[in-house]
Amino acid sequence: MLPLSFTTEEAIDFAKHGCIEEWVHLFLKTAGGNEPFSEGLKLQPRFWAGPVRLPLHELIRCCGPEVEMEYCVSQDSWDLHVAKLMEIYRKDWSYPPLIVQLVGGQLSIRDGNHRHEAMRRLNFTECWVVLWASDSQENLAHYAEI
Description:
Layout: H1 8-16, H2 20-29, H3 35-41, E1 47-55, E2 59-61, E3 63-64, E4 71-72, H4 75-90, E5 98-103, E6 106-111, H5 113-121, E7 126-133, H6 141-144
Parallel strand pairs: 2-6, 3-4, 5-7
Antiparallel strand pairs: 1-7, 5-6
Helix pairs in contact: 1-2, 2-3, 4-5
């Protein structure tokens, strides 16, 4: 297998071959640096859709410096990471899609919170996401058609 680039285009290609879940795990275990999330996803069957483009404002972060965040990080580390990402976005980076969970009718960013914030600060209106749900594929049907 050729080296992977972990771009949106690559994720789309994997999805066309029915392998988006495999791409997600390859990304999380390597470039994404989030192996515990990958292992957690494997604990039960998941349903997948995407990559699809969604409005940035519809996505809800679970990580950030705000005290109410599920995963709270320091303001300094948050701003430093976001600033680095903003620089590479300015160079037309073909970023990996965010990994977003559809739960309770909401779209929760489970991987890509810093990327989301960098895009928000750069006034992006949409971004690429891979969606997953634990309950049924039917809940993702609307997003699969976008």
